[in-house]
């Protein structure tokens, strides 16, 4: 599929071309929306909103090859707007954190394996900014620059959030086992690419 060609066609009003672009990544869009909204109906609603925005603003996209980064940024921004309106995207206290763990582990259609369950439980213990950055990087496989644009934070801040989150995950995973090595897991490589899903 030639993304740039389809974007140019869509910018000229070809609705079929825009539909092809969206359908090619519909699963990725849904997973991304679901990771923020935590329920199927809200995820579908924000995807519909994204499609409307894409249709209305596609002529503003200058780099056609950046279509998917741009459209996913629109989707994440829409998720955050809806969550702010629902007042669900607030800092978590202990009680709310327990509810978040339950939400991550009980009602997630992408939780198919034990390892995914373990990862979801671990991620639920991070602060929202660390969890978001790690999930966007390693679950949705987005580049740092795209994550920075989506979250309106500098790339350095994104890398720092990921690094701090991974350090916290390392402590949770191997803190007891590797107590004698100062809390470090000698089997896990250093750097922010230590976790892959």
> What does the overall shape look like?
elongated
* Helix run count: 10
Mean pLDDT: 80
Strand content: under 5%
> How many strands, what sense, and barrel or not for the largest sheet?
none
Assembly state (oligomeric): single chain
**Helix proportion:** 55-70%
Q: Distance N terminus to C terminus?
A: 26 Å
Spell out the helices and strands N to C. HHHHHHHHHH
Ranges where pLDDT stays below 50 over 5 or more residues in a row are: 178-197
Using only CA atoms, what is the Rg? Answer: 18 Å
Structural class: mainly alpha
Please report the total strand number as a whole number.
0
Walk me through what this model shows.
The chain is mostly helical and 197 residues long. The protein is built from ten helices and no strands. The protein has helices at residues 3-11, 15-24, 26-37, 40-57, 67-86, 94-106, 114-123, 128-139, 144-151, 155-174. It is elongated and about 55 Å long. The two termini are 26 Å apart.
């Amino acid at each position: 599929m030639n993304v740039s060609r389809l974007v140019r066609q869509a910018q000229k009003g070809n609705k079929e071309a825009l539909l092809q672009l969206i359908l090619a990544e519909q699963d990725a869009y849904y997973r991304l929306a679901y990771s923020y909204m935590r329920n199927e109906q809200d995820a579908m609603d924000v995807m519909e909103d994204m499609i409307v925005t894409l249709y209305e603003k596609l002529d503003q996209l200058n780099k056609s090859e950046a279509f998917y980064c741009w459209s996913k940024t629109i989707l994440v921004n829409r998720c955050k707007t809806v969550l702010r309106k629902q007042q669900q995207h607030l800092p978590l206290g202990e009680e709310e954190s327990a509810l978040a763990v339950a939400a991550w582990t009980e009602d997630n259609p992408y939780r198919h394996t034990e390892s995914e369950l373990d990862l979801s439980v671990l991620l639920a213990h991070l602060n929202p900014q660390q969890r978001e950055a790690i999930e966007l990087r390693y679950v949705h496989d987005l580049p740092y620059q795209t994550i920075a644009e989506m979250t309106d934070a500098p790339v350095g801040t994104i890398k720092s959030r990921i690094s701090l989150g991974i350090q916290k995950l390392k402590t949770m995973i191997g803190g007891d086992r590797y107590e004698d090595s100062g809390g470090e897991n000698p089997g896990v490589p250093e750097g922010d690419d230590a976790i892959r899903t």
